[in-house]
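can u do me a favor
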């Protein structure tokens, strides 16, 4: 199984682009005092909470809600 942070980056890439997706995960991880490699599926709530403000600015509230719901599904987590 791929590392969790790589799964999240790959999921976000089609929407944000490779560099922005990678930087977003680096920022979310650093705000939790972690490196991206230290993120685990159990961190999905914190990852989504960290991504939400940026995604809302770039994509709008409805698209952000859908994208984060899909991310939770991909990560194997229950919806919001």
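np, heres the sequence
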């Amino acid at each position: 199984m791929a590392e969790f942070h790589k799964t999240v980056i790959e999921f976000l890439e089609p929407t944000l682009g490779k560099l922005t997706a990678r930087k977003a995960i680096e920022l979310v991880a650093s705000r939790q005092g972690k490196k991206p490699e230290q993120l685990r599926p159990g961190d999905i709530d914190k990852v989504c909470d960290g991504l939400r403000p940026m995604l809302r600015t770039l994509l709008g509230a409805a698209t952000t809600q859908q994208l984060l719901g899909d991310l939770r599904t991909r990560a194997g987590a229950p919806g919001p």
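DSSP finds four helices and no strands in the chain. hope that helps!!
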